[in-house]
Amino acid sequence: MDYIVRMIAKDAPIKAMAIQGREMVQRAREIHHTSPVATAALGRTLMAASMMGQQIKEKDGSVTIRINGGGPLGSILAVSDSDGNVRGYVQNGQIDVPLKGPAKLDVGWAVGTAGSLTVIKDLRMKEPYVGTIPLVSGEIAEDITAYFAESEQIPTACALGVLVEKDLSVAAAGGYLIQLLPGASDADIDKIEAGIAQVGQVTHHLSQGVSPEELLRMVLCSFDLETLESVPVSYRCYCSRERMRSALASMGKEELRALIAEQGRAEMTCQFCDAVHVFEKEELEALADSL
């Protein structure tokens, strides 16, 4: 089962969270039939969105991460609710690129760096919060770190990893988000940086079955950590026939009648879960009459 664990340091102003996300990334791969590099890029984005969504206190709030790096994968989108449940897609999910080393996926090149990362936080207020930064590396985790530093002024360390098997299935996926609170000292920063350097790439540890709790305790080994909560998360789409009907209604009566004349029916596919909803001519005519 996928889940997020939240922890704090009892002896320093530090909060941290880590995610086990293998099942959500595997589900995304199955829905979108992604190549290994697309699975890794989308998976990292989904897990980042899940952790950021879980930070929101508003019950019906959401976090959207949109990445447009100019690389062959095209745009990547991930949306999380306030419980950390996510959905998403990658524009060119079947594209594959050469490895950049032995069993090393070149996510940065596939995503590209000639573009931006945008975070939209819907806190159920009049206007959502929108922050956009230029991409740093296209590796996702470094870009999330840069987003927090530039847009929210929160010193952050982010690591994300997805391990894809030769049969294209997801063997492991996870990562962490560590943030400094006001009052953190240079000594605290040095200890965190030393822990990050010592642990290195998270993919190796994920492949060994290291849990999110263990991963945080390895990185923050110099601190006395307390677990606050552990919450389940999953890949979850909220599409429905009624939502699709509302989208058709939003076209307006004239456009809807033009659609009926041209096609006689409508097939609408959800970009997040690939569910297909078919509306026959009689139903579309009734909908147009009701507008």
From TrEMBL:
Location in or out of the cell: Cytoplasm
Entry keyword Chaperone: yes
Major location (coarse): cytoplasm
SUPFAM superfamilies: Hsp33 domain, HSP33 redox switch-like
GO biological process: protein refolding
GO cellular component: cytoplasm
Disulphide bridges, residue numbers: 237-239, 270-273
Pfam families reported in the protein's UniProt record: HSP33 (PF01430)
UniProt cross-references to InterPro entries, sorted A to Z: Heat_shock_Hsp33, Heat_shock_Hsp33_C, Heat_shock_Hsp33_N
Recorded family membership: Belongs to the HSP33 family.
HAMAP family reported in the protein's UniProt record: HslO
Record's function text: Redox regulated molecular chaperone. Protects both thermally unfolding and oxidatively damaged proteins from irreversible aggregation. Plays an important role in the bacterial defense system toward oxidative stress.
Name listed for the protein in its UniProt record: 33 kDa chaperonin
Organism: Evtepia gabavorous
